From TrEMBL:
The chain crosses the membrane at residues 39-57, 87-107, 119-143, 149-173, 185-211. The lineage of its organism: Bacteria, Pseudomonadati, Bacteroidota, Chitinophagia, Chitinophagales. It holds the Pfam family DUF3667. Keywords: Membrane, Transmembrane, Transmembrane helix. This is DUF3667 domain-containing protein. It comes from Filimonas zeae. InterPro entries: DUF3667.
C-alpha cells in the first residue's frame, strides 16, 4: 500500500513537472489510477515547501532582518510580513477554494464546474510549490548573506504566477487560442489581486484600530 502510494506521489510530481495543465486535464477526464489525489498532493508539497523555508533557508529570520533594516513601522507588522512571505505555500493552499471561484468565474464559458476548478488550482499550487522547492529555495539559500538581493528575489517570485497560469491553461485548454488564454489569465490575476488588496487593507485598518484602542487603555 505504501509502495503504491509513493509511486502515485512520484508519478504525479513527475507528470506535473513535465506539464501541469495536461496532468490536471487527464485527472479531470477520468485517468486517475496512477495519480495522487490533487488536494492531498498540494497539501504535502506545501508542507515540504514550508519545512524547507523555515528549517533550511531560514526565510522568516532573514526577512525579519530585512524589514528591520527597511524601518518597517512596527514589530508586529514586521512579523506579519515575514510570516506571510515564509508560509505563502500554506496560505496559497488555504486559498485554493478562493482561487477556484475566480478561475471558474472567468473561464465559466469553457465548460468546467467549480469542483473541477478546485482540482485545477490544486495542480497549479503543486507546480508552484515544486518550482519554489527546486529552483527558488536553492537560490535563496545561496543569497542568505545578501539580504537586499534575497528580499528582491522573494518579491520577483510572485511574478512567476502569471506565466505559470498561462502555461497551465494553454495545456489544459489545448484547443483554445493563446490570446484568449492570456486575456483570461490576466483578468483572473487582476480580480484576485484586487480582492486580496481590499482584504489586506481592511485587515490593516482593523489592526490599526485595535492597536490604537489597546494603547489608550
Amino acid at each position: 500500500m505504501l509502495l503504491h502510494t509513493n509511486k502515485g506521489f512520484l508519478y504525479s510530481v513527475k507528470s506535473i513537472l513535465r506539464n501541469p495543465g495536461k496532468t490536471a486535464r487527464e485527472f479531470i477526464d477520468g485517468k486517475r489510477v496512477s495519480h495522487y489525489k490533487p488536494m492531498l498532493l498540494a497539501f504535502l508539497l506545501s508542507g515540504i515547501s514550508a519545512f524547507i523555508s523555515f528549517k533550511v533557508v531560514g526565510l522568516t529570520e532573514v526577512l525579519q532582518d530585512l524589514y528591520a533594516q527597511q524601518h518597517v513601522n512596527s514589530a508586529l507588522m514586521n512579523d506579519y510580513m515575514a510570516f506571510v512571505r515564509s508560509y505563502n505555500s500554506f496560505i496559497m493552499l488555504a486559498l485554493i477554494p478562493f482561487f477556484a471561484f475566480f478561475t471558474r468565474l472567468v473561464f465559466r464559458k469553457w465548460g468546467h464546474n467549480y469542483y473541477e476548478h478546485v482540482v485545477m488550482n490544486a495542480y497549479i499550487i503543486s507546480f508552484y510549490n515544486l518550482v519554489t522547492i527546486f529552483l527558488v529555495y536553492p537560490v535563496l539559500y545561496l543569497l542568505k548573506g545578501n539580504i537586499k538581493v534575497f528580499g528582491l528575489v522573494t518579491e520577483l517570485v510572485l511574478f512567476l504566477i502569471v506565466p505559470i497560469l498561462i502555461w497551465f491553461f494553454k495545456a489544459f485548454y489545448a484547443d483554445k487560442p493563446l490570446k484568449s488564454i492570456i486575456g483570461k489569465v490576466i483578468l483572473t490575476f487582476l480580480l484576485v489581486l484586487l480582492v486580496l488588496v481590499i482584504l489586506v487593507f481592511i485587515a490593516i485598518v482593523v489592526l490599526a484600530v485595535f492597536m490604537k484602542h489597546k494603547h489608550t487603555h
